[in-house]
Amino acid sequence: MSRSALRVVAAVLGALTLVTGCSSGDGDDEGSDKGRRPDGTKVTIRVPGDAPTISDAVSLARSGDLVLVAPGVYHESVRIDTARVTLRGESRDKVVIDGQLRRPNGVVVTAPGVAVENLTVRKNTQNGVLVTGSAAAVAGLPGSGGYDTGDEPVSFLKSFVVSHVTATRNGLYGIYAFSAQNGVIEHSYTSGAADSGIYVGQCKPCRIVVRDNVSELNAVGYENTNAGGDLYVVGNRLTGNRVGLTTNSDHQEKLLPQRDAVVAGNLIADNQQTGTPEQADGGWGIGIGIDGGSDNRFIRNRITGNTNAGLMITATADLTANRNRVTDNTFTANGVDIGWTFPTATRGQGNCLRGNELRTTVPAGLAESASCPVPAKSPTPSGSWASPKAPPGIAFTAVAAPRPQPQFPRATTTGATVVPDVPALPDVADIALPSPSLLATGARVRTS
């Protein structure tokens, strides 16, 4: 919407529903007047009661305000460029931002301290939710592995929360944090993404926690590229995609190479679903794929039913994969539980295994020959195996619609969310191996 059109709705400011700030809704520093009206109150801006569209309401919001959206289908793209605004739907399944296959993004966050909660974003040509400090990314120049931002210097958006969001049938990514730090993606559901359901790219150190999400029926469930440093992917359910999870290095994005992420306590299963968009690199039947990523830790994941490989490590022509540690995971019913395959010139070093429950490896005997610890420069064994052929994919618009998802607690009565400057990072020692019962129930994985 144009700025001139927004001026028309500015008159509703005097009619806004005022609520006093409470402990759950105070996003300002103590003693600061920022984000308050002259009488010291904060505001809940209701859509459509106080503003006819979500974009109108966001344009009126000040730091610390809550934009609360009533059920309905909203045909718009929402950009939040005011710090510490909370955008929340009253009903996760009934508040729908629909791109109609004409808009690139459902929600774009370009300011720090923003929370996006309890709503659905669907049918955007690129992303459901984009959180970024990159102007080029906002301009919408996607590449196969993310955004090629050219000569743009790296600029991070710092602090965000995406919680209880359903992102379905979007043309690139469901929830995408790119050139962003200090954030949380949690309790969300993604499906039908033509690239990946959840993507974290170009951050170092990231200080991002991706937890308790469900990602299914995507080309890739979760992907991170050139992202690491206090990056935790924990307690997620990545099932029924073409590829469950990838961590990789790519020249298309800055901050090469990818290194230092923790993937723990996830259920990664049955990633060879036919009713999905094709994966750009042709991936199929893979639980975890490491392509040029280094110094990552894979701990207590349950990896099962992936017809090609449970976990594979490979490398591109000039980006090797080194010092990845695979410990205490359970592998069952995969084509190959663990497979390592490298181009001769870029064979990895220092990759190792310890304490895993597994049946087959390529090369054979990795549990003994590559048992942790190994010297950092010890060459990683390499082999090959016959991979199943990927069937044709379907259009992202044809992916099945999602079931109703859990609601944000007390969505209509809780004040604006306080987004911390730096999120609390999980203690990996407390993260358990997911129960096998989750395979039958379809329940969410919990980290504790």
TrEMBL record:
Signal peptide region: 1-24
Entry-linked SMART domains: PbH1
Region (Disordered) location: 23-43
Entries under InterPro entries matching the protein: NosD_dom, PbH1, Pectin_lyas_fold, Pectin_lyase_fold/virulence, SCF-Subunits/Alg-Epimerases
Keywords carried by this UniProt record: Repeat, Signal
Record has Metal-binding as a keyword: no
Domain (Periplasmic copper-binding protein NosD beta helix) ranges: 167-337
Database matches in Gene3D superfamilies: Single-stranded right-handed beta-helix, Pectin lyase-like
Protein name from the UniProt record: Right-handed parallel beta-helix repeat-containing protein
Organism: Streptomyces niveus
